[in-house]
Amino acid sequence: MNVSATPASATAKEKVVLAYSGGLDTSVCIKWLQNEMDLDVIAMLGNVGQEHDGLEKVAAKAKQLGCVAVEVVDMTDEFANTYLTCAIAANAMYENKYPLLSALSRPLISKHLVEVAHKYGATCVAHGCTGKGNDQVRFETSIIALDPELKVIAPVREWDLGMRPDEIAYAKKHGVPVAQSIEKPYSIDDNLWGRAIEAGVLEDPWAEPPADIWTMTVDPLDASDAPTYVEIGFTAGVPTSLNGQDMPLAELVDALNKIAGANGFGRIDMIENRYVGLKSRECYEVPAGLALIQAHKALEDLCLERDVLHHKLALEQIWADQVYNGRWFSPLKEALDAFMANTQQVLTGSVKLKFYKGGCVVVGRSSAASLYDAGLATYDNDDSFDQKAAKGFIDIQGLSIKTWATKRTELAQAPQDVQLDVLDGTGEAACADAYGQTFAQAVNC
Ligand code: ARG
């Protein structure tokens, strides 16, 4: 849905395109950009599958706040078909825990900000991020990559409305509606892939997350007493069917979010290293995302040749770091995507998942491209593995170790004056002693 609500203004003011959410911060941003920067504001409202009370309502609010144009862009399918597809191919998991949900939406929103800026001849783009998060880095690095000429304004980072009461006072003075109800004391970012929840009581790493932070997942204690089985079909690495029914990825993720969430699966509570250098406590709900990555890995275990699989594991970490650090549009990330895409060509098959009380396990996998060879794997009579050949294999692959071990024994048995400190024939203990002595000497001098 691309709804241009108001034609571009004919004034001579410079234009800025703001990534608008409808919340208090970005609503105050509109007024601040108009009043303090003397700019015409175009609001861009991106739908990436987040919860909202109606995009039309949010668009109307932007118009009411004096935006010269409002663009509502439905990015859900693009988010699923490009961003989530690449993330699944790379089994994207920052610090082995976080499936990058906010980090995946920022480059997409940036791409559309740049497109809207070009459409309206705007010279600036703006976002509502603070100065201590990763999201500012992701927006601005993406914009640098897509149009280095565009100026970026980050009002929340620049204005002196530091504390909430100042911001509310500014809002009231400039006619920005402020909700009567006290806003939830959390900072939340959500999209089709899941929800990120931070701040409030969560800032204490010892405090258990309160029950009210979770909205996509039930408490595992309240989940059904019977397991739920789900079959995910993959085509060239992309999840394309759920329980035998073909569906577009966005729909599949949505449906699986509900199944996994109802079984209490998908919660993460972690301490995370932000790119800007601080540790933060983050809670996430990523029910479908975690399940799909688990299923995808299980299919890769079956279909990828060993060396490809092992090297891919290392490259996946680099991919996740690049994307976490805002480098979606970077030559390294592009090259890694090419590697990932190459590996996915054989990834067609099915994976059976079992959800039960907060858990999700892979209980079956199958593929026409499976490299699992029952004849090689079996211990039964029809074994096709040449066990006698293993002897030569072990001798040759162990040859360098044998040479080293023989030399070690020889030196340990030699007269005292040719012995080396570390080589007394007892291996590690001797090593540790030698290091201990060296360390002691170093410290003493
Ligand atoms: N820490 C996560 C990240 O950097 C989530 C940030 C989400 N933002 C928020 N306002 N909760 O990707």
From TrEMBL:
Transport as a keyword of this entry, yes or no, is no
For L-aspartate, which residues are the binding ones?
T130, N134, D135
GO terms for MF: argininosuccinate synthase activity; ATP binding
Is Ligase a UniProt keyword of this protein? yes
Q: Which reaction does it catalyse?
A: L-citrulline + L-aspartate + ATP = 2-(N(omega)-L-arginino)succinate + AMP + diphosphate + H(+)
Instruction: Outline the extent of the Arginosuccinate synthase C-terminal domain.
Output: 186-403
EC number assigned by the record: 6.3.4.5
> Which Pfam families does this one have?
Arginosuc_syn_C, Arginosuc_synth
Q: Where in the cell is it found?
A: Cytoplasm
**Broad EC category:** ligase
Q: Which family does it belong to?
A: Belongs to the argininosuccinate synthase family. Type 1 subfamily.
Known partners and oligomeric status:
Homotetramer.
- Report the protein name in the record: Argininosuccinate synthase
